[in-house]
Design goal:
Elements (H helix, E strand, L loop, with lengths): L1 E6 L2 E4 L4 E9 L6 E7 L6 E6 L6 E3 L7 E6 L4 E6 L8 E8 L7 E2 L3 E6 L1
């Protein structure tokens, strides 16, 4: 089992950048696929990005491609989401998630708020 704690959210102006972190506790961090999701006000949760266990491959949603970068540091048990060129549509609560079996997301953090002002 793994526990996930996000940090790094906040208020930023449009065009700015933020880096989110998600620290994991528990065993075998490197055995988990990791992802970032977000939920905007009044909308359903949506996929943002994911990264494979060894960090060799990443996947991004079309809405963030070219602006957001997911990375991980297995030595620090941490996954990151670098967000550049933020716009107001990126305002949401951002969640990190972990998947041990390669098919769904079993573990979730509590979320961190990102607000982009115009």
């Amino acid at each position: 089992q793994v526990q996930l704690v996000e940090s790094g959210g906040g208020l930023v102006q449009a065009g700015g950048s933020l880096r989110l972190s998600c620290a994991a506790s528990g065993r075998s961090f490197s055995s988990y696929r990791l992802g970032w999701f977000r939920r905007a006000p009044g909308q359903e949760r949506e996929f943002v990005a994911s990264i494979t266990r060894n960090g060799g491959r990443t996947y991004n949603s079309g809405s963030v491609k070219g602006r957001f970068t997911i990375s991980r540091d297995n030595a620090k048990n941490t996954v990151y989401l670098q967000m550049n060129s933020l716009n107001t549509e990126d305002t949401a609560v951002y969640y990190c998630a972990a998947d041990q079996f390669g098919s769904s997301w079993q573990y979730w953090g509590q979320g961190t708020q990102v607000t982009v002002s115009s």
